[in-house]
Task: inverse folding
């Protein structure tokens, strides 16, 4: 039995494989399995599609106004509402 | 990663802020707000909601800071990160769950909220926002934080581990679990689209 066929489906490793977070040895093992397993090939394609979709939700160009002034004002308002000691 | 302080400066600031020094607390807010706002916008898909939750998070932190204790193994200069992200994530999840149906409708009309831009189509962004929202429903706070920081923000496991005060192995497991939830949500979306 080859390493690829001996390895179980790669569900547990697919996220780390897609992210490039596996060791070289584990990556090679996953790729040997993928070469022989249509089920896991489909899962990999689906995972990459999900990653692509979710990465579309981020943009470096978005400016988010800070909240420091709002936090400071809210704290002052709370202090103003507190009963005098 | 865009937020946090360096060296022992944060520990001194925390001690001062816990004693009622508002300037010290303002410095803590200034240090963390950019990263926290971005994370919340990615989680919620709406900048104004992100600002509201960030404000609530900092107010909650201000009240609880006198009782805060540095966790074992915390990263110097990022001592408050795991605590602040945990507070923020729990508040974000509560908001998402409370708004479940109304936000879903808004997302589909507006193309997935205000954070989404770039080359993807409006339809793809609406699908992505719906996908994420569905997956977030049944995950724990730390799982939610890991999948947003990894799949949306593109952070490496090691960076997420530092930010959330977890081990890289814990992040790996949470991302793997999050992917299962995302794939289930993806399958459900596909089934609905074909119905």
Result:
């Amino acid at each position: 039995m080859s390493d690829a066929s001996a390895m179980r489906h790669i569900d547990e490793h697919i996220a780390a494989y897609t992210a490039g977070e596996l060791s070289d040895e584990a990556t090679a093992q996953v790729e040997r399995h993928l070469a022989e397993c249509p089920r896991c090939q489909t899962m990999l394609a689906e995972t990459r599609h999900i990653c692509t979709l979710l990465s579309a939700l981020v943009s470096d160009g978005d400016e988010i106004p800070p909240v420091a002034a709002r936090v400071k004002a809210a704290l002052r308002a709370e202090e103003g509402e507190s009963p005098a000691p | 990663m865009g937020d946090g302080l360096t060296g022992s400066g944060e520990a001194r600031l925390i001690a001062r802020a816990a004693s009622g020094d508002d300037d010290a607390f303002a410095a803590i807010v200034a240090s963390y707000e950019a990263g926290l706002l971005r994370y919340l916008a990615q989680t919620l898909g709406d900048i104004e909601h992100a600002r509201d939750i960030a404000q609530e998070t900092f107010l909650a932190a201000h009240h609880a800071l006198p009782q805060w204790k540095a966790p074992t193994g915390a990263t110097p200069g990022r001592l408050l990160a795991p605590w602040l992200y945990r507070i923020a994530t729990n508040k974000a999840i509560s908001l998402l769950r409370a708004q479940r149906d109304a936000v879903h409708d808004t997302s589909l009309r507006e193309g997935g909220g205000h954070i989404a831009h770039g080359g993807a189509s409006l339809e793809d962004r609406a699908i992505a926002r719906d996908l994420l929202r569905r997956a977030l429903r049944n995950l724990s706070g730390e799982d939610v934080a890991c999948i947003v920081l990894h799949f949306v923000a593109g952070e490496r496991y090691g960076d997420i581990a530092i930010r959330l005060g977890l081990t890289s192995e814990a992040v790996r497991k949470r991302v793997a679990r999050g992917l299962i939830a995302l794939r289930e949500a993806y399958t459900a979306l596909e089934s609905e689209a074909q119905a």
User: Anything to note?
Assistant: Chain B touches chain A through 52 residues (CB under 8 Å). The CA atoms of residues 39 and 62 of chain B lie 20 Å apart.
